[in-house]
Amino acid sequence: MRGQGNRRQRKSAAAGLYARLNEHVTIEADADGNVVAGLDGQVLERTKLGAGAAKRTLALRTGLPVRSLASPRGAIDNEVALLVRRLARRGLLEYGLSRTNGRGDLVAIEPQIEDYWPQTAKLGANDTVALSRFAYLRRRGTDLVLEAPRAPALFRIDDPKTVAAITGLSRPQRIADLRRRRGFVGLELLGLLLDCNIIFKVAAGSEGLRSSEGDANLVVWDFHDLLFHARSTEGRHANPMGGRYAFVGVIPPPPAVGSRLAGPEIDLQQFTASSVEPISPFINLLRERHSTRDFDSARPITIAELAKFLHHAARVQWKWTTPLDFGDGSFGPEVDYTRRPYPSAGASYELELYLAVANCEGLEKGFYHYDADRHALVSIQVRAQELARLLASAQFAMGAAAPPQILITIAARFNRVSWKYSAIAYSLILKDVGVLLQTLYLTATDLDLGGCAIGTCNIDLLSKMTGQEFHVEGPVGQFALGRAAGVGDAA
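RESULT FIELD:
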């Protein structure tokens, strides 16, 4: 009798997964088959379907079964599925996993990357799963959300029992054991979490949870570093970002200069105001440095100027190898080092330069990697729309009238720094980016070129273009370069 009861319970535990519009998105359809989806009064999608398909799209307000969309049957299902996929790519959908009793969601799934589509990874009775060390629960408004920097979606959870079941996976658990417990959350939810890298399979005979999750490059990441990397730029989350002035009306604008502190003051003007020493070329260079956002399309930068720029700012000057010295008389493996024009934490020089070339005399439009050792540009084959999107994103970030002539994306080989430094690795990488950006600015100024640092880059887009996973080598800065169209604005 018990065995039959368990079989009935497992059968009823098959929850349904539904695709529906984000709560802020509206959809309208008329009798002629015209379908319009919008957000805040702005039309985001307009298409014409058959009358039956158009009518069915209105069910997206409450939800359409994902299974029917993944394997459409008939013309109406196929039309609806194609539209739903377009809406999904634009980030207009979320997904609900229904409770077994049909009363509301067990979880709601919010995509964090634009091409996310829910997939349920397969799990067997003998599989062992554990919660990712990068997963975390937090309050967002009045919601509780479960997310991770490697996850393409987050999970909004209302049920305390579901939260308890998931947190119980901090210890590895066999699927067979989980299924025997009261309140088992179901294989579909676990499969969705597995597909999103929020839980992972623990290999038999594993030497530790850290080493069995992901690849060797993931081992060196600390939780806070990977989270900051994924959440501080675009491509791996759906949060508002950029210059939004979110706290206007909440607090007054902070002053440009910090407040004066109490205490005795030593006036340094007396030591500088009367100086008759000529200003050095370097000091002049610092004063002349500025951001250029508009470039002269009629007189683009030349390949000779680009070569000189890279030579002075980023080229490997010399290399050496030395045994790792632990400082106690013992030595580790041989470590390679380089010297370049800018400083780097521990002489790591983990930063790589990728060039999106839109307009350069003597160089084809395209995407290139700068080989700093050989002082060479290596062409990388990418889709035209990817290159255009990268350049358009930089143009938007600068508020410019046109894309930059050359966009330099600075990517970091993260393990080069985190192999040595604990807790501060990502912080050191960002410091290295800062000094490299200053070096690029000063070199551009010295060569009578224009440049502008850009504060963000799409992590997923660059990953597709370079073929590198975002946690292996990812973007940490950008710099627009070209011939200035006029006097740059101060920054």
